[in-house]
Amino acid sequence: MKNLLIICLMLLLSGCVDKEILDDINIEVGVGYDLAEDSKDKYRGTVLFQEFQPDKSVINRTFSGSGKLRQDLLIDVTRQSSEPVVTGGLKVAVFGPKISRQGIYDLIDSFQRDPSIGARVFVVTSEDKAEEVMKGEYGTRGNSTYIYNLIQHNIDNRDIPKTNLHIVSRDYYETGKDTFLPRIKKIADDKVEIIGVSLFDKDKEVEILPLKDLFFFKLLVDKYSKGNFDVKLEKGNFAAVKSIKSKHKIKITDNHASININIEGIIREYTGRKLTSEVVNDVEKKLEKKVERECLKLLKQFQELGIDPVGLGQIKKTQHRKFDYKKWEDEYKTLEFDVKCNVNVEETGIIE
Amino acid sequence: MKNKRIKEDVEHKEWEKSFIKSKDFKKIFYYNQKTNVRFGLTFMATLIDENIIQDGILPNLLEDEFREIEDIKQLVPVADVQICDDPSLIEQKLMNGYVMLTIETELKHFGFIAAQKEIVRGLSQPEVEFSVIGPKEAFVESMGQNLNLIRKRLPVKELIIEEFTLGSLSKTSVAILYMENITNEDNVDTVRQRLKNVKFDAITDSSYIVQLISDNSNSPFPQLLDTERPDRVAGILAEGKIAIVVDGSPHVLITPTTLVEFFSSFEDYFLNWILSSFFRLIRLFAVAFSILITPIYVATLSYHYELIPKDLMSTLITSRREIPLPPILEALFLELTIELLREAGARLPTKVGQTIGIVGGIVIGTASVEAGLTSNVLLIIVALAALASFTTPVYRMGNTIRLLRFPFLFLAELWGLLGIVFCFCVLLTHLTRLTSLGRPFLEPLYPPRVVDMKDALIRLPFEAQSKRPIFLRTKNPIRFSKKKAKKKKDIDE
C-alpha cells in the first residue's frame, strides 16, 4: 500500500516539474538595456539568442522589447520567439550609456532573483547603445561568447579587476564599498574593445576610468597574477616588466589610510644596451615611484567623487570594533592617504 | 526350485516395479564355475562403468571359489564394497552407480560394489574470470575434481569439507568448506542451517543455491559471490570465509561477501598493489559512470540546460536538432538496442555472435544516427556506459549494474536530477540494509571499518594485510606476525 502510494505520487508529482528540453527552447545568452525613447516605458531591452546551424556555426539573433520591468521585456520577446524563452544561459549583460547614468540596480536585482541565472554573468557598461553592441557579429562562436571571453581573459591576464554578477551585487550591498564595471565599445561591426572601467556611486555611473589608469586601479582593488607594465627610463629607454604578481595591504587608522603594494615581476624587454643591476634598480625605483604617484592620484580622485571602489570603508569596518558608517562618510572626505610600493624584479631573462 | 525363484521375484517386484520400465535397468544371473552358486548382478547400465564389471567383478566372481556373500570382500578388487540387509537402501545405491549382488542362498543380504562411471570434463581455462597472469585452472562440473583443486591449494587438516544432499529429486551433493581454526563457527552454523532448510526438488546448479539461501531474495544484488577460480576459493578460505561447492556446477559460491568484493578481480592480487588499486578505482568509476551517465544526459537535456557548458551547447543542440523523440525515448531506444545486442550475442553461438556485434555496433548505430532517430552524442554515451558495465569482474554483478540504469532513467525523466538523487538514496538505503549471511553487505564503507579498507576500494601491499577482515569475526584474526616479518633480513649482513 505504502509503495503503491509512493509510485502514484511519483507519477502525479512529475506534472509539477517544468520540462525544458534543450532543443525546444530559446536560450537567452546575452541581454542589453537602454533607456526607452518612449517616455511611458522605462527600458528598452535587447535579448540575444544563439541559433546553431547544422555545421555548428552560430547565428546571432536579437529581439527587442520595452517595458517597466525586466519581465515586460521577456513577455515582449516571447511574443516574437518561436520557442519558449528561458534565461538560464545568460552570460553577458550590457548596459547602455544613459541607463547606467540613471541607475541599474533594479535590473541587476532581477537577475539575482532569477534562480536559473548563474553568479558568473559578466555585467558591463557600453559606450554605444547596448542594442547596437548586441547586434554586431563578433567572432564565429556567437556574440555573447565573444564578449564573455574578451572580458574573462582580460581579467585573467590583463588590467581588468575581477568582476561578475556576484561581486557586483556584493559590492552594491556592502557598506563602504562601491561598484565598478568594465566598459566596452563597439569599434566596428565585428569588433568590440575594452575602453576602461565605469565607476559607480551606489548604482549610478559617475566616472569612467581610462585605460591608462587601469593598471594602477587593479593594483588597488585586486591582485595581479600575470600583469604587464612598461617603465620609461632615462635617455628614452624603456623596460617591459612582465609576469607581474601583486598584493596590496591596507591599514586604516583614525584618519589615515596606508596602502602597501607589493609587486614582483620579470624584465622581458629592455631597449638599452646592457641590463646591469643598476638599471634593474633603476627600473624598480621608477616603477615604485610611478605606482605611488598614480595610485595616490586615483585615491584622491575617488575621494573627490565621493566614491569608494577600493572598499576602504569596508576595510576599516573589519579593523575597527566600533565602526559607524554615517561617521565614516564624513571621515572619508578628509581621509589622508599614503601609498607605499615595493617592487622586486626577480629575473631579467636568460641573457646576462 | 523354480517356484522358489518365482516367489522371490514376486517379493522383489515391489521395488522393481518402476525400475523394470527403464531400459537401462539390468538384472543378470550367473553361475560360479567352481561352486555352482547362482548369483545375480543388478545395476543401472547408464550409471556404471561396464569395464569395472567386465574386468574387475565378473572374472573373479565366476572363476574363484565363491560360496557366500561375505566372500566378495576378498574376491572383488574394488575399494568400495558394502554388504547390508536393508532393502530400503537398494534404490539409493543403484542410483548412485553401485552394482547390487544377490545370491540365491542369502536372500536377505545384498552386496554393493561401486562401479560409477566418472565422466569428467578436462580442466579448462576460466572463461568468465579470465586473467592474464596467474593460474589458468577453472572448476569443472565434477565435485570430486573441484574439491581436489581446492584441497591441493590448502593441504592442511584444518580445511573441513562437510557434505549435504539437497533436492528431493536431484539428490545433489553440496559441500561446505571452511577452515576449522579460522572461520567463525556462527557463520558455518548459519550456512548449515540454511542449506538444511532448502526446499526445492531439483537443484541443478549452484545458482539455485545462491537464490535459495541468500538473505534477501528480492534484491537485484547477488549476496553470494560465485567464482570459477580455485585460487580465489583458496584465497577466501584463508581469509575465514566459507565456500559452497555444488556437484554438477563449475561455479563455487563464496559467503559472506561484501559489495566491494564484487568489483575486485582476483587478478588484483597478482599485480603490484599500486596497479591493482588503480584498476579497482577505475572499475568503481566505471560502475558509477555506467549507471549514471545516461540518466544524467536525460535529466540535463530535459530540465537543467543551465548546467551545460557554453562550449558544449552547440554540439548538443546541433546533434539533437533533427531528432523527433524527447531525450527519454531517445535514450530508452538506444539502451534497449544495446540490451538486445547483448542478449542476442549471449544466446547465439560464438561465431554468429561476433557478426551480431558488428551488425549491431556499426550498422544499427550509424544508421540510427543518420536516420535521425538518435543523436550521436547519446550514441557515444550509451556505448561507453555499456562498455563500462562490462568491466565488472563478476558477471552476475554486471547484469545488476545494467538493470539499475533503468529506474534511474525513469526518475531522471520524471524529476530531473532530483529524481536521480532520490533513486540514489533508495539504492543506498537498500544497500545499507542488505546483509550477506547476516554480515553487512556494504562493509567496510558502512558500517565504516577503517581496518578493512586495506583490501576494499584499494588494495594495500601484502605486508599491510597482516589481519583478516574484522567483519568476519574470525577465530584467529592474525594472518602473520608483523614483528617477525620485519625481523627477517637479507643475507648480506
Give a verbal description of the structure.
Chain A folds into two domains: 23-221, no CATH class; 223-352, Nutrient germinant receptor protein C, domain 3 (GMP Synthetase, Chain A, domain 3, 2-Layer Sandwich), CATH 3.30.300.210. Chain A is built from eleven helices and 13 strands. Chain A has helices at residues 2-13, 70-80, 97-102, 105-113, 130-134, 143-157, 165-173, 211-221, 277-305, 312-319, 325-334; strands at residues 26-35, 43-52, 58-67, 85-86, 92-95, 122-126, 180-188, 191-201, 204-210, 227-232, 238-253, 256-270, 336-347. In chain A, strands 1, 2, 3, 4, 5, 6, 7, 8 and 9 form a nine-stranded mixed β-sheet that branches. Chain A has a four-stranded mixed β-sheet with strand order 10-11-12-13, sandwiched between helices. In chain A, helix 4 crosses helix 7 (165-173). The radius of gyration of chain A is 24 Å and the shape is globular. The model of chain A has no long low-confidence stretch (mean pLDDT 85). Chain B has a five-stranded antiparallel β-sheet with strand order 1-2-4-5-3, covered by helices on one side. Chain B has a five-stranded antiparallel β-sheet with strand order 6-7-9-10-8, with helices on both faces. Chain B contains 17 helices and twelve strands. In chain B, 46% of the residues lie in helices and 13% in strands. The model of chain B has no long low-confidence stretch (mean pLDDT 87). Chain B is of the alpha+beta class. Chain B is elongated and about 100 Å long. The chains are: A alpha/beta (352), B alpha+beta (493). Chain A binds chain B through residues 10-11, 13-14, 17-23, 25, 27, 29, 50, 52-54, 56, 58, 86, 88-89, 91, 116, 118, 141, 144-145, 148, and chain B through 300-303, 305-306, 308, 310-311, 313-318, 320-321, 323, 326-327, 411, 413-416. Chain A: One of its GO terms (cellular component) is membrane. Chain A: Residues 18-185 form the Spore germination protein N-terminal domain. Chain A: It is found in: Membrane.
